[in-house]
Amino acid sequence: MSKVAIVMGSQSDWPTMQNAALMLKQLGVEYDAQVVSAHRTPELLTEFAVTAADKGIEVIIAGAGGAAHLPGMIAAHTHLPVFGVPVKSRTLNGLDSLLSIVQMPKGVAVGTLAIGDAGAANAGLMAAQIIALHDEAVRSAVQDFRRSQTQKVLSNQKLELPE
Ligand SMILES: Nc1c(C(=O)O)ncn1[C@@H]1O[C@H](COP(=O)(O)O)[C@@H](O)[C@H]1O
């Protein structure tokens, strides 16, 4: 059963949001992904957010660009932790997405990640770290991932000047 839900405002967000899915897959966490838009499919948003906990979802990752109200509106409907990923927009490079996700009013929380691919990957990592609190297999996968990342950095010490 999926413990993490990944939602995004448009299919055009998938090249960014697939980085969250790839991270979860790498760490052995089952996820569902779907397009849900606060503005274009408001009834679907409410239905998704209100029923997510009863379906066994433990963490929600929501990505959107521009007037990115999706993560905040989902958080308004559920007690589950919600991570917001600002998708890079064509006109303002994602600054609009970032500001509209990060500036939540006190009392309704969204954990906001960095703009774009790295933010989406880290949202997947955060979700896995939450699942790892009670799932030993995911905990070892997260620890292995971190150890191998450290090894890669330490073994890549080539700092030569170009000819
Ligand atoms: N910000 C939102 C919401 C929302 O917040 O509900 N729904 C779609 N969008 C965003 O509009 C951008 C352009 O979407 P299209 O490419 O479909 O025109 C996407 O980045 C999407 O997340």
Automatic annotation (TrEMBL):
UniProt-recorded name of the protein: N5-carboxyaminoimidazole ribonucleotide mutase
HAMAP family: PurE_classI
Residue stretches making up the PurE domain: 2-153
Enzyme Commission identifier(s): 5.4.99.18
Keyword annotations: Isomerase, Purine biosynthesis
SMART domains registered for this protein in UniProt: AIRC
Binding positions (substrate): 10, 13, 40
Catalytic activity annotation: 5-carboxyamino-1-(5-phospho-D-ribosyl)imidazole + H(+) = 5-amino-1-(5-phospho-D-ribosyl)imidazole-4-carboxylate
SUPFAM superfamilies: N5-CAIR mutase (phosphoribosylaminoimidazole carboxylase, PurE) (SSF52255)
Pathway the protein acts in: Purine metabolism; IMP biosynthesis via de novo pathway; 5-amino-1-(5-phospho-D-ribosyl)imidazole-4-carboxylate from 5-amino-1-(5-phospho-D-ribosyl)imidazole (N5-CAIR route): step 2/2
